[in-house]
Amino acid sequence: MPKDYLERRVTSQDGLSLYVRDYPGPADSPHTPLLCLGGLTRNSKDFAGVAKYHSRTRRVICPETRGRGHSDYDPDWQNYQPATYVNDVRHILCALGIHGVVVIGTSMGGIMGMAMAAAMPTVLKGLVLNDVGPTVRVDSLDKIIDYMKNPPSLTSWDAAGRHLRAAFEGEYPITEDEHWTRAATLSYVEKEDGTITFDWDANILKPILADKTDVHDLWHLFHATRRLPVLTVRGAKSTILDEPQLAEMSAQHEKMTSVVVPGIGHAPSLAEPASMEAINGFLEQF
Fold it and tell me: Are the CB atoms for 36 and 69 separated by under 8 Å?
């Protein structure tokens, strides 16, 4: 079955090969391209549904951050930080000849989107923040960090599904084992020896563990988005983006709208009806 995207490679400023899924969309589309940026451990597969849907009307770009998926792992773990990732995005957009984008950013990808508003103000036209805000409490990441600390060596995809379920069952209303197994295929990988493990460089965790900051204040980046339309998607059960922070974001950003996805923790998949309806409506202006 032919793929509905092109697989591209872009060389970063420091020589790493970065993988990009490029969904071309209609050649004569008047709509602004969509740039999808994933979470801390995630890759382009997370956005397959979003990209396929929106590529009917516009170009959609889904890069894999260095150290994730098909992109090269960085030999220096200290480069695993948002400033490096945003610079990689700059190179990718330049290489692909894209001069303006709307960003959908999940978790860390949303932080990258806010940083783009400050670093690339003429490029960013609009922003969807998926379950992330400008105050990041490190203790809210404890579940994710504990999960990342122990890369598994599993013998089947069913076992991978059980491993994922044990870590995150409370975040999603998923009860069937087969759905957890399918979810595992998005962020685990089968190695040459047949074992299954995480599809990212274990070293991406090192900068987080080395940073002793309890609360990261990114309000200066959020304020850089105030000239732009912003949509914030929050999982109703999320502890990473809680209700008080969402309310404060709304109070400080006149062009921000928001939607809360019922029954979901961190982070919405963006396939939920509430997410899809909000994003589809938001993108109509671009």
Answer: no
Predicted confidence (pLDDT) per residue in 152-163, tens digit: 999 999 999 999
Helix residue spans in the chain (DSSP H): 48-54, 82-96, 108-119, 142-149, 157-168, 177-184, 206-210, 219-223, 243-252, 273-283
Is pLDDT of 233 > 90?
yes
Q: Which structural domain range is residue 121 located in?
A: 6-136+215-283
Q: Is residue 174 part of a domain?
A: no
The sign one gets for the Cα dihedral 85, 120, 210, 188 is negative
Residue 169 belongs to some domain of the structure: no
Establish if 60 belongs to a structural domain: yes
Q: What is the rounded distance in angstroms from the CA atom of residue 176 to the CA atom of residue 191?
A: 26
CATH number of 11's domain: 3.40.50.1820
Lookup result for tokens 């809360």:
260
**DSSP class of 134:** S
The model's confidence at residue 3, banded by pLDDT at 50, 70 and 90, is: confident
Distances, alpha carbon 62 to alpha carbons 30, 193, 200, in Å = 19, 29, 16
**How many distinct structural domains can be found in the chain?**
1
Helix (H) or strand (E) holding 34: strand 34-37
